[in-house]
Amino acid sequence: MKHVLRVGLEDLYNGKTSRLAITRDRKCGTCGGSGVRKGGVVRTCGTCNGRKVVVRVRQIGPMIQQVRTVCPDCNGTGVQIREGDRCPDCKGKKLTKDRKVLEVYVEKGMKSGDKIVMRGEGNEEPDVAPGDIVFVVEQREHDVFKRKGADLLMVKKISLSQALCGFTETITHLDDRVLTYTVAPGSVIKDQSLMRIEGEGMPIKGDPLQKGNLFIVFKIVFPESLSPDQVERIAAALGAPEPATLTGDEEEVFMEEVEIEQFGQTKASINRSEHYDEDDEDGQGPGGVQCQQM
C-alpha cells in the first residue's frame, strides 16, 4: 500500500509525528482466515480441482489458444464453502476490513520523495505475510523559504535608503527562532545581491545537528517618484549626474515604460504597393521607357 504524506517545510525542519487512520484487509479474526464457521466444512473446488485457475481453450481461425484464468466458481481460492458453512463475519471471504491509527514519524531533514515504510502494516491475504505501507513525503510550498537540498533561499525586499545606508533586520525561522542581521552603513547592497548565513539551512537527514546554509536575495524597491527637494539632496550627497555632451545634430526621441513581454512583439508591416508603385506590369520604369538587354 502506498500513500502520499503531505507536510509543510516546518515539519521537515523540526520533525513531526503524524497520526493517520488507514483501512486495510486483514485475516478474519473470527475464522482465522479460513472463511468457515466453527464446525463448517471446506470442500475442494470441483471446477478447478483446487488449482485456483482454469484453462480455457479458444479457436481463432486455424489456431488454438489456451488461456489461464481465475476460477469463476471459487474466485481463485481453490475451495468452495456452502452458504450455511460460511463464517458469519467475513461471509466466507476470509478477510475483513480493519481500521488502524498509525503513528508516522517524519524525520528532520527529509525531503519530497523520501519514503517512510511501516513493515507488516499493509493488506493481508490468507497464507501470505502482511504487506507494508509506504508513505511518500510530499512537501507543500512555503510562503517565505525555498528549499534546494540542505539549503534555504528567501527573497528580502528593501528600500533604496536601506540599500545605500545600511539596516538591521530580523528573520523568523522555521522553528520560530528570530534571527537578526545587520548590513553596516557604507556597505551598499545592489539589486539581486545574494548573501549567505552559514548553518541556518535545513538539518541533514540522519545528522540533524549539521545544517545547510540560508541564502538571501535582496530586491531593492525603488521609489515611484522624487520631489525636487529629494532630488536636490540626493545630488548633493552622491554628486549630480554629468550632463551629456551634445553637438546640436542629435535627433531627440522620447521613451515610455513598458513590460518586458512587449519586447519582440512588434510586427513589421510592409506595403508592397508603396515600394513598387513606380513599376508597371511590363517592367517599364518612369515615363514608360523600356529596359532592353544589350
UniProtKB/TrEMBL annotation:
Tell me what organism the protein belongs to. Answer: Pinguiococcus pyrenoidosus
Q: What is this protein called?
A: CR-type domain-containing protein
Question: Per the record, which residues fall in region Disordered?
Answer: 264-294
Keywords of the record: Metal-binding, Repeat, Zinc, Zinc-finger
Family matches, as InterPro entries: DnaJ_C, DNJA1/2-like, HSP40/DnaJ_pept-bd, HSP_DnaJ_Cys-rich_dom, HSP_DnaJ_Cys-rich_dom_sf
Q: Does the keyword Zinc-finger apply?
A: yes
Residues annotated as signal peptide: none
An example molecular function term from Gene Ontology annotations: Hsp70 protein binding
> Entry's Gene3D superfamilies?
Heat shock protein DnaJ, cysteine-rich domain, Urease metallochaperone UreE, N-terminal domain
Q: Does the keyword Iron apply?
A: no
Membrane spanning stretches:
none
Enumerate the Pfam families for this protein: DnaJ_C, DnaJ_CXXCXGXG
Sequence ranges assigned to domain CR-type in this UniProt record: 15-99
UniProt zinc finger (CR-type) residues: 15-99
BP terms from Gene Ontology: protein folding
